[in-house]
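### Sample
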Amino acid sequence: MAAPAPAPVAAAPVAAPAEPLPPGMRRLTIHIGPLPQPELADALQDLFRDIPGLGTMTPLECAQPDRRIYSVVTGSTNEDLLDLFVFHVAKELVDIREEGGAPAEDPIAAEEARAAALDQAAAQGRPAAAPVPESESFGFFQEPPAQAPAAPVRAAGTPAAPAAAAAGGAGGAASQSSLEATSIRVAVSKVDQIINLVGELVITQAMLAQNSRALDPALHQQLFAGLADLDRNTRDLQESVMSIRMIPMSFVFNRFPRMLRDLANKLGKKVDFVTQGEATELDKGLVEKITDPLTHLVRNSCDHGIEMPADRLKAGKPEHGTITLAASHQGGSIVIEVRDDGKGLSREKILAKARERGLNVSDSMPDSEVWQLIFAPGFSTAEVVTDVSGRGVGMDVVKRNIAALGGTVDIDSDFGRGMKVSVRLPLTLAIMDGMSVRVGDEVYILPLSAVVESFQVQDDAVSTVAQGAQLVKVRDEFMPVIELERLFQVPPSTDNGGSGIMVVVESEGSRAALLVSELLGQHQVVVKNLESNYRKVANVSGATILGDGKVALILDIGALVRRSRH
């Protein structure tokens, strides 16, 4: 009966299982999949080949064609490996295990997870609970007490044990029963269903409001009072429902202090980490997708931006560098900034690297265009490829991921003083405030957050410049004019009497004037995804259903303003 005992050895086609490992190294088995394109995982072997000291990765046989299995010998933590893998395969598809088959013990990551849970629980005045997959459900709690502003987290040196975490842990058992009475966990699908239903309610309310305009308010006073109450209650309801999907940016920011502290210690640097605007809220779906690009930006600031302590002292700077992560609402968007007081970008080095790669550049290019060069695929000014950054998954991947969310990335740098990367994202709420305008016989929706003002324009106020472009002067400022009728090839209306109306819109710090036929009014609109139901349309961000049942396009103000610049 003892004969079958060697069977477990079959699961180890590794070179020599009994071979002792160097100090600090671990032997892991990594399962990846299922993948729609399994060959994507093969790129992970290139990371282990190109990054010195990362370790070795050996492919193992796998009976399932949509999966990959690898034997890995490395000294990196699970979190570092996942941060490397995420640009090729999603984290949830990676299963890291000790070679014996048990989940890999990653003491550093495990301790960080426990500490983060305690910190978060203490900050919210609740005990740390067993983690529940965020993609499956929401946890709703009573409004936590206002928390004091967090002090800067020093990323170098020995961190002090947070007293709040200890207090939270001590009082956790006592408050558990009251917590259960004030919280409920709901599936995300149910929340989305409620949001869709509220959207349909808004459309119905708009239809009733539009149809009632033909009635005499004096004869139907009670009906108009009821419609006014319906309008107010519908708005309050949609704001309450939409807030359910909104979670504070602290859920993203909380993961960075420990990561940055370990990274700074690894690089031998001294870094202070400061967060601002943690209470700024963003849609849950975006919060999950913005984490990885922000992680790469913070790592870049620490690795490329902040200098070594001795170099900072020589430059007359304090020994500790500062990395700031800030979030704020600007109009209908959220802006997340990653700032550092390091050495900034070198214009000469970027131009030299661009010429080396055969890019068309010149010394007369403005700084803003030079900084955009670092978004070119595979562009890196790192002299040494490390497992921190400069690993072939650079800023081009970050920009592509953010663009997929409908966002933009801008860079501002001052050589020797630091740099700032600004990520602008739409709030992507299902319902928004819009201004409806008529262009010919068509109706378009402008996001109200982008509208600055409107005015009647006379023909002599518009000037034509080179290549047929038009400018209008508004209080000593010339703005490009965008004729929506010509842009969307709308047939002219038969009742287009008098001069047109200009609507001044603003996006990314620039303004443009849209020429429309008539302003129809301001109201709430339900945003429908045009791309998933039809296809992507230039200069259009979505569509909505009007009160009379017609479909109106929601204009992409950012795209229109960028178009006017060129």
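The chain has a mean pLDDT of 75. This sample (Chemotaxis protein CheA) is used throughout the tutorial notebook.
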